[in-house]
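ok so i was messing around last nite and threw this chain in just to see what happens. nothing serious, just curious
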Amino acid sequence: MLRRPERNARVTAAVAGVGTGHGRGDAVQASRLAGIYAGEKDESELFLSGDQFSRRSPRYTFTDDTMTVFEVNDYLTVRNFNAHWRKGGHSLLANVSNGTQYTGGVANSFATGAGKAHEKELQLVNYGYDFGPSWGNLKYTGTVDRQRRHHSRDSSASLRSDILGTRVINTLSAEVDLAGPFSLEVGGSHDYRTVERFRNYISSSHVVVSENMLYRRQVWEGSVFGQLVYDLEPWRFVAGTRFTHNATFGDDLSSRVSAVYMVNERNSVKFMAGQSFRAPTPFELYFQPAPVTVLGNPALRPEKTSTVEASYLTSWDKMFGQATVYFMDYSNTIFRNRGDFTRDGQTFSNISFYDNARRYNARVWNSRPVIRPASSMRSPPSITSMEAKATPTRFRLRGSSA
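result:
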C-alpha cells in the first residue's frame, strides 16, 4: 500500500503490480504503476498513477431477433492515467482514460454491429484553490472534461457514429463559522455543455450521413445556493436552498432540510425532506437520426422530484442496521414513449420519442433485518415494501422502447 508522506518529508516512492485471475469463465488481467513525490522546500506533492484492466469472456453463439446466428467474443479493456499535484492551497488533477468494449455492438443484435468494437475516451482537468481566510473557508474549483464515443451502427461497420461532448463547470463556495453551533455555506456555480458533434458517417469514405440535429448544440445553467447548519450534540440541523436559472427552461427554486438526533453513540434518527430539478439533455430535446429510430422532443419539460424520508440507524460491535421509510413525488419524469409523434410539422407513425410522464408518487419501506459484519464485502439482504400511485398514463421505465 502506497501511503501519502508527511509534507515536511522529501520522499520519492514507486509501486508496481500485475495480476491475473479467472472467474465464471472470464479471464481477467490488471496492472498498475504508481509513484509519489513530496518536496521538502516548497511543500509540494505530486502523485502519478497508471493502470490497465482487461476482461475477456469465452466465445459464445448468439441468435438475434432476425434469426441471424453468429459468434461473439466479449472483452473489455480500460486504461487510465492520473496526475495529482498539490502545493499550498492549490491543487490540480488530470485524468486521461480510454476503453474498448467488444460486446455485441451497442446491443446484442447483429444489426447494431455485433462483434464491432465500441471505443470510449475521456480527458478531464480539475483545478482547485482554497483561499483559507481567517473568517472561514473560501474555495474555487473549475473542471473541464471531454468525452468521446465511437461505435458501429450496422453489422458490417460501414456506418459508424462519432460522438463528442465537452463540459465546463466553475464553482465558488464559502463556509463561515457563525456564533455558537451555527455555520453558513453560500456559493454559486455555472455549468456549460456543448455537443461538439454527433455524426453518422460512412467508414470507407468518411462521408457524413447525418449530424442528428445535434451539431454544436449548447446548454448552460447557473445557480446560487445557501445552507445553514446547526451542529450541537445530540442534534444536527441543515437547511438549504438553491436557485437555478437554465438558459432554456428559466428559473427553479429547490430546497432541502434535514435533522439528525443522536440517541447515543450507536443509535440515531434522521429526517430529510427535499426537492430536485433536472433539465432535459440536448439528446432528449433535439436528437433526430437518419433514418429515424428515436426522436428528441423540443417540448419536453424539466423533471421535478420531492422526497420525504425518515430513518433509524443502529450498530453494535461491527454490526450495522437501518430502517427507512420514504415518500417520493415525481413530476414530468422523462422517458421513451412509443406511438405517433409530430415534430416540426412532420408526423412520424409508431416511433420511439422522448416524453414527459404524468405526475405519480411512491411510498417505500426498507429495512435490513439480517445484519452482517461491516467488513463483509457482500451487502446484507433487505426487505422492501413499495406502493406506487399514478394518474392514468401510458408509462414505461426510462430507456425502454416497448
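not much to say yet. The chain has one domain: 11-390.
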